Amino acid sequence: YPRQHALETQLGKFNLTAIEAMLGSYTKVLFVRDPFQRLISTFMQGMGSSPSFSSFVQDVLDSGQPNTSVGSKPLVSLCWPCLVQYDYVVMFGFLRQELGHLLRRTGLPVDSLLPEFTDNQVRWTYRWLSEQMFSELSLQQKQQLSHFYRWDLSAFPFSSSFLSD
């Protein structure tokens, strides 16, 4: 797209005609991750100033969606999957398999570009960590989180998410 080197980086900075032209000229890839795992990751990276995971979750719930950090916002509010037709959706935990497929489809060499992933270890670790963190939450917090991320949970196949129950 001719304006690819423009200073504006968010689509909202462009007019509708430019947005349609850009979206039509690029391969659009969306990387998604279970919202509960995103919350854990944000907490673990110290992006929340709360002393416990439970109080961090309460801070996210109390602040409301517009005021939450990017790490805890629902994905649908960040990437608009109902409006943008993504060519590929890559799920966290299946990166090696899905990125290999994506690189082959785009004609790029697979072996030289893919780093080593340990998807099985990542899935097991996040499952264990999710169980621990989920057990810290009250029933009310669990229900509120499920409601807070309801659109993510319906838009993406997070079948093993703790928030799907």
Structure, described:
With 165 residues, the protein is mainly alpha-helical. The protein has one domain (11-155). The chain has nine helices and two strands, in the order αβαααβααααα. It has a two-stranded parallel sheet. α3 crosses α8 (139-148). 16% of the residues are buried.
Characteristics:
single chain, 165 residues, mainly alpha, two-stranded parallel sheet, 51% helix
What's a quick, concise take on this entry?
Its main location: Golgi. With 165 residues, the chain is mainly alpha-helical.
Mean pLDDT: 80
Helix content: 40-55%
Total of DSSP H or I helical runs spanning 4+ residues: 9
How far do the termini sit from each other?
A: 43 Å
Largest sheet: 2 strands, parallel
Beta strands, count: 2
Helix/sheet category:
mainly alpha
Order of helices and strands: HEHHHEHHHHH
Shape: globular
Catalogue the unreliable spans.
Answer: none
Strand order of the largest sheet: 1-2
Radius of gyration: 18 Å
Q: How many separate domains? A: 1
Beta-strand fraction estimate: under 5%
Keywords: Carbohydrate metabolism, Glycoprotein, Golgi apparatus, Membrane, Signal-anchor, Transferase, Transmembrane, Transmembrane helix
Family: Belongs to the sulfotransferase 2 family.
Main location: Golgi
Subcellular location: Golgi apparatus membrane
